[in-house]
Amino acid sequence: MNGWAEGIQSAIEYIEDNLTQELKIEDIAAKAYVSPFYFQKIFCVLCGFTVSEYIRSRRLTLAAQELSCSDCRIVDIAVKYGYDSHDSFTRAFTKFHKISPSAARERGASLRAFAPLKIKLTLEGANMLEYKIEEKLSFAVIGKMRKFNTDTSYEEIPKFWDEYAQSGGHDIVPGMYGLCWDGDGKEFEYYIGCNYLPYKEIPEGYVAKVIPAGTWAVFPCRGPIVESLQSVNTQIWSEWLPNLRDYKLAGNYNLEVYLTPPKENPMDNYCEIWVPVAKV
Question: Which pLDDT score is estimated for 83?
Fold first, then answer.
């Protein structure tokens, strides 16, 4: 993907230019020429924090600077940086800076600063990421669906799997897939399920979803499931995508595919991550 680093940097610059305005993830992602779904996923992997965390940290940094060098009312500064009340601003400000907004005005007050990001992609080591490009026909998935916020999904989705197993969900619909499907850019749908056969009845509380025919990049994950998935996922977005040339991301969805049940020896586990792509 040519200009990937430039696209991310353009998105960051757009955020910086509009910190006192309403920021929509759709507009931010458009600067990087990817969907909100993929932008948030990639941003978090590259930066170590979410888009909303970055925006909040930058706004609170600028708010502190204004408090310390101007006579503007606290409530006016709160509104300027997106807070709808004095109380909500005070809570966020105190959590970030460890002092209250009023204390920030005192001479010698210690404040925290979160600098603007500068994206630089560098070559590190020679890690080998195994993958293959495959053409697949359209297929349908049936699963239990729950919506997740991008900011908390890493912590909440494993809990969803645990809850599903404890409730006996695997006896109704085996958990062969973990399907991420973009919602509105702020939330996405996540399905635990398996292949759907149209002649079978859909159990109550489950949903069928059709996956379009297309081209997929398939990434094997070997070893302890959670650790291997997270490791390969990080490599996909931080190493594989920036060097992608003949293909581009396609579709606002991706799959975790569990081809075999968990093994007694975690090192024997095998699963895959499927990412839809298209020829450039």
Answer: 95
Contact 25, 39 (CB under 8 A): yes
When mean pLDDT is compared across 35-39, 204-208, 244-248, the lowest value belongs to 244-248
CATH (domain of 262): 3.20.80.10
> What is the phi/psi pair of residue 256, to 5°?
-100, 130
Task: Phi first, then psi: give them for residue 255, nearest 5 degrees.
Answer: -130, 140
pLDDT at 248 exceeding the cut of 80: yes
| Mean pLDDT, rounded, of the chain | 90
Neighbours of 184 (CB within 10 A): 11
Residue 202, domain extent: 132-279
Angle between helices 4-17 and 36-47 (to 10 degrees): 90
Strands 207-211 and 214-222: unpaired
Q: What would the pLDDT profile of 82-135 be if each residue is shown by its tens digit?
A: 999 999 999 999 999 999 999 998 888 899 999 998 876 655 555 668 999 999
In a domain, 166, yes or no: yes
Please give the model's pTM, rounded to 2 decimal places. 0.83
Rounded CA-CA distance 195/55 in Å is 39
